[in-house]
C-alpha cells in the first residue's frame, strides 16, 4: 500500500519577520530566513514593499549627485517647503515640484560648502542647517523664499552660534552640540530665537564630568516626554527640566549603551529609536517612572546587522520613522541595503519584526507632515509609492526556515507545493525548495492569472451612464500550485516574484509530502 500524502501548512508565513540569529531548526514556522524587498502588512502577511517614484522631473543644478539630507519646513499657517542638500548646494522643491537652487542672499562672500550631510531643524518658521566645519545657515521665507544666509546674518543676531554637527529643535529653542573643538557641551538658543546665543534664556550645558562610565563624546540629541536626551557613543544622559533650562537637572544615566550614528535617532512620539553598538535600541517611555529601560529591537538579526555596521561610515547611515507606514527604516549604504523594522507590534521577546530591502538604496530619508516618505536618490527626490522602483521591477524574496515535516527521523518525499497569494495580477511566482540545508534549490514557475475588474460610476447617477471609476472584484485570493520532487529530512521552501506595478502578499503555504525511509 502506498503511503498517504500529508500536508504541512504555514498560515501567515513570515509573520514574525527575519530571524538569522537563532538556530533554524528551533525557529517557529512564522519566522523567515530570507525576507527581501518585503514588509509585513497590517494583516500580518509577508508582502511586497512599495517602490518609489520621482517627485521632481529634472535635476537642475543638483545634477547626477546624491541627496545628502531632506527636511520639511512647516510654518504656522500650514505652508510647507521641502528642502534638501546635494552637490554641495541647498535646494527646495517649488510649487510644481521642480528643483530650485537656493542662492546665497547675505552680504559679502558666500560661505564655502564642501559637503551635504547637514543636520537640520526648524524653529519659529525658519529652517537651520548645521554641519561640522561649516557656517550654520538659515532658510527664512519671511525674508526670502529663494535664498539662504548665515545664521550670523539674521537681524538681531547675538552671541556666537556654535558650528556644531548636531542640532534639534525642542521645547521652543535650538539645541546644538559636537563642534570640532568641543564635543562635551550642549549649547541652547534663546526661546523661539535660533539666532540668539547670549543673554535671554540661552546658555550651555557642560557634561564633560557627568558621564557615568568615563569620558565620552556627544553623538546625538533627542527630546522626549519633557526630557533632553544626550547620547554619547557608549552611554546616555537624561536631563529633566529642559523646558526651563535654568533649572535643568541630571535625571538619569545609562552606561554601556550609546548611539553610534547621529541620523539613526528617530522620535516615534511614544519612544526614541536609535542605533547602538549592539543593535537598534528603544529608549522606552517608562523613563518617566525613573528608569531607563532599553529594548533590543534587532535581536533576531543582531549579528548580521552589526557585522555590516562594522564596515559602514557611520555618518552616512540614515533612518526614518513613518507613522503612516508603521516602520523604522535604517540604511546601510556600503552594502546597499535597508533594514525595515515593523513598529505595529513587538514580539514576545521585545524585538521588532524585521525585513530587508536591497534595491531601493536611499541616500536620505524623511517623513513629511502629510505622511509621505521621501527618499533621496541620485539626482532626484523620490516618494515611497507604487510598486516599481521608478520604472523598474524589483525582486521580492521570501524563504521559510529549515524544518522537518513532522518527524525528524523520517525522510520526506515532496509531492506538491501550494501557495495562496493576494494580488500580483499577471505576474509569476517562482517556487523553490531544497533539502538538508543545501543551497541547491529545485524550482518551478507559477503564474498568477489576470484579475478582472468591474466598472461603476462614482455618482449615484453617472453622466450619460458613462463609468468613471474601476473597482477590483473583491479580494483577489489566488491558489497557485506546482508539482515538487526530491526528498530529505529537513525541507526549506522559498517564493520569489518580480514586483512590477502590482503588490503581492502571501497568505498561506501548504507542502504536500509522503513519508520515506526511517533512520
Describe the structure.
A hairpin with a 2-residue loop joins strand 8 and strand 9. The chain has an 8-stranded mixed β-sheet with strand order 7-8-9-10-14-13-12-11, with no helix packed on it. It is elongated, with a radius of gyration of 26 Å. It has 519 residues and is an all-beta fold.
- The span between the termini is 20 Å
Average pLDDT confidence is: 91
The amount of beta strand, in percent, is over 45%
Strand runs, count? 43
Number of helical elements: 1
Q: What does the radius of gyration come to?
A: 26 Å
Order of strands, widest sheet: 7-8-9-10-14-13-12-11
What labels would you give this structure?
8-stranded mixed β-sheet; 519 residues; single chain; elongated; mainly beta; 2% helix
Produce a short descriptive summary.
2% of the residues lie in helices and 46% in strands. It is mostly beta strands and 519 residues long.
Amino acid at each position: 500500500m502506498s503511503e498517504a500524502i500529508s500536508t504541512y501548512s504555514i498560515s501567515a508565513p513570515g509573520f514574525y519577520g527575519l530571524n538569522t540569529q537563532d538556530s533554524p531548526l528551533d525557529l517557529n514556522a512564522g519566522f523567515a530566513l530570507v525576507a527581501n524587498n518585503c514588509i509585513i502588512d497590517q494583516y500580518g502577511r509577508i508582502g511586497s514593499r512599495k517602490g518609489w517614484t520621482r517627485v521632481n522631473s529634472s535635476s537642475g543644478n543638483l545634477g547626477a549627485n546624491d541627496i545628502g539630507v531632506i527636511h520639511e519646513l512647516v510654518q504656522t499657517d500650514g505652508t510647507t517647503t521641502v528642502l534638501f542638500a546635494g552637490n554641495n548646494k541647498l535646494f527646495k522643491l517649488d510649487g510644481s515640484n521642480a528643483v530650485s537652487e537656493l542662492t546665497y542672499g547675505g552680504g559679502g562672500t558666500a560661505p564655502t560648502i564642501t559637503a551635504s550631510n547637514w543636520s537640520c531643524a526648524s524653529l519659529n518658521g525658519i529652517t537651520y542647517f548645521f554641519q561640522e566645519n561649516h557656517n550654520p545657515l538659515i532658510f527664512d521665507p519671511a525674508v526670502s523664499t529663494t535664498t539662504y544666509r548665515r545664521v550670523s546674518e539674521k537681524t538681531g543676531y547675538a552671541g556666537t552660534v556654535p558650528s556644531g554637527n548636531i542640532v534639534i529643535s525642542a521645547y521652543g529653542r535650538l539645541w546644538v552640540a559636537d563642534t570640532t573643538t568641543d564635543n562635551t557641551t550642549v549649547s541652547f538658543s534663546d526661546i523661539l530665537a535660533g539666532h540668539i546665543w547670549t543673554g535671554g534664556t540661552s546658555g550651555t550645558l557642560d557634561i564633560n564630568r557627568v558621564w557615568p562610565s568615563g569620558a565620552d563624546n556627544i553623538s546625538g540629541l533627542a527630546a522626549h516626554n519633557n526630557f533632553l536626551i544626550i547620547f554619547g557613543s557608549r552611554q546616555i544622559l537624561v536631563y529633566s527640566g529642559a523646558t526651563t533650562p535654568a533649572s535643568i537637572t541630571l535625571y538619569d544615566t545609562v552606561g554601556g549603551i550609546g548611539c553610534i550614528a547621529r541620523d539613526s535617532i528617530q522620535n516615534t512620539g511614544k519612544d526614541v529609536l536609535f542605533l547602538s553598538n549592539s543593535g537598534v535600541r528603544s529608549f522606552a517611555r517608562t523613563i518617566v517612572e525613573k528608569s531607563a529601560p532599553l529594548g533590543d529591537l534587532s535581536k533576531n538579526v543582531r549579528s548580521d546587522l552589526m557585522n555590516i555596521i562594522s564596515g559602514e561610515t557611520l555618518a552616512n547611515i540614515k533612518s526614518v520613522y513613518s507613522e503612516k507606514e508603521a516602520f523604522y527604516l535604517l540604511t546601510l549604504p556600503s552594502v546597499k541595503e535597508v533594514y525595515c523594522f515593523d513598529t505595529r507590534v513587538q514580539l514576545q521577546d521585545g524585538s521588532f519584526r524585521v525585513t530587508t530591502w536591497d534595491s531601493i538604496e536611499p541616500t536620505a530619508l524623511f517623513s513629511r507632515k502629510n505622511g509621505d516618505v521621501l527618499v533621496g536618490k541620485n539626482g532626484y527626490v523620490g516618494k515611497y509609492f507604487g510598486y516599481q522602483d521608478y520604472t523598474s521591477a524589483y525582486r521580492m524574496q521570501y524563504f521559510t526556515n529549515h524544518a522537518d515535516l513532522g518527524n525528524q527521523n523520517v525522510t520526506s518525499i515532496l509531492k506538491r507545493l501550494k501557495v495562496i497569494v493576494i494580488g500580483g495580477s499577471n505576474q509569476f511566482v517562482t517556487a523553490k525548495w531544497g533539502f538538508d540545508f543545501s543551497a541547491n534549490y529545485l524550482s518551478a514557475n507559477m503564474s498568477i492569472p489576470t484579475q478582472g475588474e468591474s466598472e461603476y460610476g462614482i455618482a449615484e447617477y453617472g453622466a450619460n451612464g458613462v463609468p468613471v471609476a474601476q473597482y477590483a472584484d473583491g479580494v483577489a485570493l489566488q491558489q497557485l500550485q506546482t508539482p515538487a520532487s526530491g526528498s530529505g529530512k529537513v525541507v526549506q521552501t522559498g517564493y520569489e516574484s518580480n514586483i512590477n506595478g502590482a503588490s503581492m502578499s502571501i497568505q498561506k503555504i501548504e507542502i504536500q509530502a509522503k513519508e520515506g525511509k526511517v533512520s
